Amino acid sequence: MAPAKLLVDIHTHVYLPRYANMLRARSSVPKIMTTLIDGKEQDRLLILDHEPSGGRPVGPQYWDRDQKLAFMDRHGIDVSVVSTANPWLDFLPASQAHELALELNADLEQYCSTGPDMTDSSVKRLYGFGLLPLVPEITTTSLLEAVKQISEAPHLKGLIMGTRGVGKGLDDEALDPVWAAIEAAGLVVFLHPHYGVDGKAWGDRDNGHVLPLALGFPFETTTAATRLILSGVFDRFPNLRLLLAHSGGALPQLSSRLASCIDHDPVVASRLKHDARYYLGKLYLDAVAYGPEELGFVSEVLSRANRYEAGSTLNEPADRKVGSKKVLFGTDHPFFPPLQSIEKWKSVVENLEAISSVQGWTEDEKDGVRGGNALSLFNIS
Ligand code: URA
Ligand code: ZN
């Protein structure tokens, strides 16, 4: 049995040693390279196209399990559901992506299964999201093999994916057998950005990584999730469980506008079974939003989905508690390290304070967001 009131981090990354070594051996982006900074050698991570500021510092916090556990201990995090960080296998040819996906899934299962248990409990401290070889020219058989491998790995509770699919995005009909297999296996899909949006929008001023990370990442997630809704994926696979990074980007804010645009568009108006806002009720959102007002808002938007089931009316009361049950604590570790060395990372403390300060959430609901919701979603007990 899981002890009551665990703190569970569902948005926390790793570059497994096999993956980090592969990045180190590369001469083009994505890569890890050693450069001289102020006369000292430093490893830098270059993963974005037109990577700003010569990349970001990278070190063992990205691959060393002991450092992940030390970070968890320092912040009171009991359990982490760890995922490979972007850009996953996106840049590899199909045969290499296939092989590496299977190897990395096996590595991640071992990373979790050989890690520590919670004291006096059968619950482990580490669980994981596996990977699919989602690249152009991959075969469906290969994708289904990876889904099967993940579903059979006791400590892998879902899979992380970017937004490109097999080259044409996630609304590509070629992915239907993959959604069907994921749904049947009960795996959670963690949808995470990498590419942002067209960098021309950011202008010439050097703003470091602020614009691609603060805006580009969530805009990318917004677009990908919206395209999924528009493709009718949730009508075909109603039990698919999709967890959106960074609290769903701008989708909660734009969902009524989306619904209205659909209703007024002759191409799309009769395509979906439900109002667009109904499909927001299919989503889970991480609580990586850094502010209580944002968390309160997104949970309200998820709460009202039941009002938009076919046949309901706007007077239908929103089921308030449903929304907070779909929001889950995350840190985005090891990204967003503090600029000065301090005991606790601001990115973690702020997300925890935000959960504690949401107006209108009961203590039970806050406990759920901190951990109980994750235990239920991932069936960890
Ligand atoms: N930056 C990244 O590249 N990935 C993350 O997950 C967070 C920040
Ligand atoms: Zn992340």
Automatic annotation (TrEMBL):
One of its GO terms (molecular function) is hydrolase activity. It comes from the Eukaryota. Pfam families: Amidohydro_2 (PF04909). Residues 8-379 form the Amidohydrolase-related domain. One of its GO terms (cellular component) is cytosol. InterPro entries: ACMSD, Amidohydro-rel, Metal_Hydrolase. One of its GO terms (biological process) is secondary metabolic process. The keyword Hydrolase applies. Keywords: Decarboxylase, Hydrolase, Lyase. Belongs to the metallo-dependent hydrolases superfamily. This is Amidohydrolase 2. It comes from Dendrothele bispora (strain CBS 962.96).
